[in-house]
Structures are given as C-alpha cells and as structure tokens.
Write a structure and sequence with these properties.
Blueprint: E1 12-19, E2 27-35, E3 46-49, H1 58-65, H2 69-72, H3 78-89, E4 93-96, H4 99-109, E5 118-120, H5 121-128, H6 137-144, H7 159-176, H8 181-188
Helix pairs in contact: 5-7, 6-7
C-alpha cells in the first residue's frame, strides 16, 4: 500500500489494544504497524497475545473481541513483552481510532513512554466526512469501501484487524481531504499537540 505524500518521512505506529474487561483494564492483545517507508505491507504488522493477571470477563469475550482465557493461557505476561512493545512505539507518532483511549491504556502499562504526537482517525474522520451519523471504525471501513481482506483471518475487533483498518482509514482520509501535514495535525491531533495559531497582527 502506497503511503500518502503528507505522511512520507514520518515515523508512525498505528496501534490497537484489546483488554480483559476488568477495571483498570489489562492489555491482552496489541498490534503495532510501523510506517516509515513509502509503502506498507500487512506482513510488517506485529501482534502480541498477552496473559493478564486477572481473567478476561465473559462479556468482552462475547461482545467485543472474542478472545478467551484459554487463548491467552500459554502466552507471555505483560512484564515479559513490555520492553519489546515499548521499543516498537518509542519515537513514533501514535495513530489509533479513538486514540485517547489507546494512549491512556498504553501510558498506564508503559509509564516511561510518551508519544511525540498522537493522530486520531476518529477525530480526523469527523473533520473530513462530517455528518455521517456514526464513526465507529467498522462503519467507516464500510463507508469508505476499504479492503480488509488481508486481515480477514484476524476477525473484526481483534487488534490486527483494527490496526490495519485504522491505517487504511488514515491514508484514505488524508487523500480525500487533500491534507498537507500541518492540516492533518490540526484536524487529527488532540488539542495539547496542536501548536497555537500565530496572532494575525494588531487589531488597531
């Protein structure tokens, strides 16, 4: 997949996490797609299943991601993979759908990690496609006619499917919105990452 011009030369990490349904949530699956070059292929995406300290609740298994306690029983714990995951995220712009949620959960799991910038495809979709009435990732994939066949074996709402879909959505929104980098940041970044506008001169 060709990377849009506005994203060339940027180090991105497109991310999705799935949780165990507990409070606070523990990550049981994470997928990271590193975007640095002019083309991206699905094989570059990395995914981890993680065994939590508390069980996965039946309701999130049934209604969200379908991951069971048996699926993670023989998987590593977070402490066993956290360094590897943090290395995959460090110095990369975090991209996610409803990114504040992913950022908050990741920050709780990786206290020393801070992204240099966050881009939210949910926020961006509302700017480029106003008035849709629904902005879930699945609805936006359908609206845009995105091809998710490369991750069909992951299943909807699994981290790999959501990560690849979020990447495709970002690329489509940048292209359809004809966005330059600064426009993208203004539309997609949370307020704390958007630089204040320069004053337009004195009013007298």
């Amino acid at each position: 997949m060709i990377v849009p011009n506005a994203l060339r030369g940027k180090n991105l990490a497109v991310v999705d996490v799935e949780g165990n349904g507990q409070t606070p949530p523990e990550i049981i699956e994470i997928s990271i797609l590193a975007v640095s070059r002019e083309t991206v292929v699905v094989e570059e995406m990395r995914s981890w299943l993680i065994r939590p300290t508390r069980p996965i609740t039946p309701i999130v298994t049934r209604k969200v991601h379908g991951i069971t306690n048996a699926d993670v029983a023989d998987r590593p714990t977070w402490s066993e993979v956290s360094e590897e995951i943090q290395a995959a995220l460090t110095d990369r712009i975090l991209v996610a759908h409803n990114a504040n949620l992913e950022r908050r959960v990741l920050s709780e799991h990786l206290p020393s990690w801070t992204p240099p910038l966050v881009l939210d495809t949910l926020r961006l979709a509302k700017a480029v496609w106003p008035g849709l009435g629904g902005y879930s990732l699945e609805k936006l994939v359908t609206h845009a006619g995105l091809d998710t066949s490369a991750v069909a074996d992951h299943g909807h709402h699994r981290a790999g499917w959501d990560t690849w879909a979020a990447w495709q959505l970002l690329a489509r929104l940048v292209e359809e919105g004809e966005l330059a980098w600064d426009d993208l940041v203004a539309a997609a970044a949370p307020a704390e990452f958007v630089p204040p506008k320069e004053p337009q001169g004195r009013l007298w």
